[in-house]
Amino acid sequence: MGSITDWSKYPRISRIATAAAADVGRGSETLMTYVRGDLFRSARHLALGTEQPRRARRENRRKTKRPARALVVTGFYIPQAQQPAAETDGPLGALEVCMALRAVGGDAWLISDEHCASVICAAAGDLLPEDRVLIAPHAKPEFDAWFNMVIDLVKRHGIDTLVFIERVGPARDGRPRNMRGVDIAEWTAPLSQLALLELHTIGVGDGGNEIGMGRVADYAISGVVAHGESIACTVAADQLVVAGTSNWGAHALVCAMRALGCPQVEPYLEPDWHRAVLDAIVAAGGLDGVHMTNVPTVDGLDPARYFGTVAQLSAFARH
Q1: CA 288 to chain centre
Q2: Residue 1 has pLDDT above 50, yes or no
Q3: CA Rg, the chain, in Å?
Q4: For residues 165 and 212, what is the distance between their CA atoms, to the nearest angstrom?
Q5: Which residue has the higher pLDDT, 57 or 66?
Q6: Order of all β-strands in the sheet with 200-205
Q7: Nearest residue to 282 (alpha-carbon basis) of 268, 269, 293
Q8: How far apart, in Å, are the Cα atoms of 141 and each of 116, 136, 280?
Q9: HEC string of 10-72?
Q10: What is the C-alpha to C-alpha distance for residues 143 and 189, in angstroms, rounded to an integer?
Q11: Given its phi and psi angles, is residue 285 left (phi above 0), alpha (psi -120 to 50 degrees) or beta?
């Protein structure tokens, strides 16, 4: 475990967690109460390597402390839109976490599926090397081969962490459902299977249907989220970050890394960086998940509120 002095940063990171969980209509402030402390623990793991993967614990092996090497999974496809594409919430935050990990000396691979590929690749742009962006096929034989490739990649590069950011996962009936309760399995590769790798897993979500939300009692999701009883994801995570939007949750992770003493992530605290990536995502067809339109907004939020929260979290990280 990390030094006991790490906990001196907890009050500041708790403040970041509370601000990121500001409710935009999906009960995030309530759901966040079930996972208090998880933002601190997950950021500490990413930045300082203070948690051991389950496999390492089981085999009683020591893990050398170093920043995480992570698979960062995102992409939420909106098939009902006039021009279907991935939504703007998720890819931006996932790229930010990838960049932050690489900045502190770790490494990261951005993962999504073929339906979300155009938006994911646009988010990565020239910021991530081409071999650090992995796109999973949807069809089963091809997906199985791709999954085996990822297993080899994990072993070859010593990948120890899995981060799901705004990635829909299976509900009680095994089907992934959007916030409207619609089954979208036809357009969603089963990336929740990456949890079978038994890496240290962090989830980031905002509505109850994302991978990692299995860490929250399903009755809690049912009680505060529309269609919660049918959409709640059953896949848990070692830690879960609940936020008003998942991009805020991802940014909270990076801000918490900054609060823990990682100044290398400073470029990603600037709202202008976020605006530039969001513009690239929208240029590639990315959709606001609430309006289902190709506009540079996230979850229907007014840009002033959305970027105002980004700036607020950054300020908390610095002071």
Answers
A1: 17
A2: no
A3: 18
A4: 9
A5: 66
A6: 133-136, 107-113, 69-73, 161-165, 200-205, 239-242
A7: 293
A8: 19, 11, 32
A9: HHHHHHHHHHHCCCCCCCHHHHHHHHCCHHHHHHHHHHHCCCCCHHHHHCCCCCCCCCCEEEE
A10: 8
A11: left
4 band by pLDDT with thresholds 50, 70 and 90:
very low
Other Cβ atoms less than 10 A from the Cβ of 144: the count is 12
Q: What is the DSSP string of the chain?
A: ---GGGGGGHHHHHHHHHHHT--SSS-HHHHHGGGTTHHHHHHHHHHH--S--HHHHHTT--------EEEEE---EETTSSS-EEBSTTHHHHHHHHHHHHHTT-EEEEEEEGGGHHHHHHHHTTTS-GGGEEEE-SSHHHHHHHHHHHHHHHHHHT--EEEEES-B-B-TTS-BB-TT--B-GGG---GGGGGGG--EEEEEESSS-BTBBTTS-HHHHHHHSTTHHHH----B-SEEEE-SSHHHHHHHHHHHHHHTT-GGGGGGG-HHHHHHHHHHHHHTT-BBTTTTBSSS-STT--HHHHHHHHHHHHHHHH-
Give the tens place of pLDDT for each residue, 249-274.
999 999 999 999 999 999 999 999 99
Place of tokens 């879960």: 240
Query: Crossing angle, helix 117-124 and helix 91-103, to 10 degrees?
Result: 40
Quote the CA–CA distance of 66 and 107 in Å, as a whole number: 11
The residue type at 82: Q
Strand partners, 293: 288
Is the overall model pTM greater than 0.90, yes or no? yes
Residue with tokens 């009050």: 11
The CA distance from 215 to 152, in Å, is 28
